[in-house]
Amino acid sequence: MDTNPLLTMTRLVDRTPGVSGPEIVRNLVPPPQFADATFDSYRPDPNFPSQAETVARLRNFGSAKKVKSGGFFSKKKVVNEDADKGVYLDGGFGVGKTHMLAALWHQAQGPKYFGTFIEYTALVGALGYAAAVEALKGASLICIDEFELDDPGDTMIMTRLLGALTAGGTRIAATSNTPPNALGEGRFAAADFLREIQALASNFVTIRIDGTDYRQRDLDGHARVTPDAEFEDAVATQVAAGKTVTVDEFDELMAHLAKIHPSSYVRLLDGIDVIALRNVTEFDDQTGALRLVAFIDRVYDAQIPIIASGVPLDQVFGGGMLNGGYRKKYLRSMSRMNALTSELA
């Protein structure tokens, strides 16, 4: 009888979760690692003053309100110059933008929502545009993490959605690695959608955050690789510690992810403590590479360590992908994979 312990492991490819529109709305809250994020718990790097300055500005934004001045002909005046617009946190990966966004969300009064860009577009896809607006309208604050446009359709959907919500008094806060007036550059014919992109930019006051990637401060080299000869023992050690471990062939998992909407990736990870990937290979197509980016984002949100054999995960974006329009996405994902593969070292 074959006693290979990997044959009895849970596999991600055996899971086919789905997520409904109402479920997406219920889950529009910060990921577990930022469940208790506050401005006080954020640690600005003293070498980059813009980090502390952003915290102060966001505190002010979170408490800013419109008030009426006295007099019959008076108009509403704004206590804070940013109060009539949203804030857009523009900076490199690993400078704490998501932490600050979550802290702002926690400070705000409800109703309020926090989700990734892909979750909001998935909500429109699940409910339809009108029903999505109805579900979100009346919110005091909507936080959008990882605001990155990959196609013209998303550009127009988010332009319409943000326009409808801000017209009703909702304020928007977003993060991205790309300034709002540059969204889409190098990805699609941005000139054809310049009006939509400019309309998006007009909704925000951009706040630039400088800094270095905090995830890499204590890490050296590439994502950690577990040699084939040590792979089974590494998995067995985690199982013996009481962890729920999934074991998948990398190529099989990537093919499986193609059958699931990225908004459901978070459900794919329910109850998982460690992910083990065998025989990681380099991508030769950008669609698969972007699918991995979306998956790793959810794994990182859930803080699930990864055991991987084969090609180092931070080296899977080959064929000149790092020189294209998705460069910042790939670099962010590489940073996260380096951190996730180092957690069990």
Question: Keyphrases for this structure?
Answer:
Rossmann fold, alpha/beta, 12 helices, 39% helix, 3-stranded parallel β-sheet, cell division, 345 residues
Question: Can you describe what's shown?
Answer:
- The protein is an alpha/beta fold and 345 residues long.
- 39% of the residues lie in helices and 15% in strands.
- It contains 12 helices and 10 strands.
- Strands 4-5-6-3-7 form a 5-stranded parallel beta sheet, with helices on both faces. The protein has a 3-stranded parallel beta sheet with strand order 8-9-10. Strands 1-2 form a two-stranded antiparallel ribbon.
- Helix 2 runs parallel beside helix 3.
- The protein starts with 20 loop residues before the first helix and ends with a helix.
The helicity comes to 25-40%
Structural class: alpha/beta
Strand content: 5-15%
SSE order, as H and E? HHEEEHEHHEHEHEHEHHEHEH
CATH architecture of the largest domain: 3-Layer(aba) Sandwich
Determine the N-to-C terminus distance.
32 Å
Q: What's the total number of strands?
A: 10
Rounded radius of gyration (Å): 21 Å
Low-confidence stretches: 66-79, 184-193
Could you give the order of strands across the largest sheet?
4-5-6-3-7
CATH class of the largest domain: Alpha Beta
SS field, number of helical segments: 12
Brief digest:
This protein has 345 residues and is of the alpha/beta class. The protein has 12 helices and 10 strands.
Task: Annotate the secondary structure layout.
Elements: H1 21-26, H2 49-63, E1 66-68, E2 76-78, E3 86-91, H3 97-107, E4 112-116, H4 117-127, H5 129-136, E5 141-145, H6 152-167, E6 171-176, H7 194-201, E7 204-209, H8 228-240, E8 245-249, H9 250-257, H10 265-268, E9 274-280, H11 286-302, E10 306-310, H12 327-342
Parallel strand pairs: 3-6, 3-7, 4-5, 5-6, 8-9, 9-10
Antiparallel strand pairs: 1-2
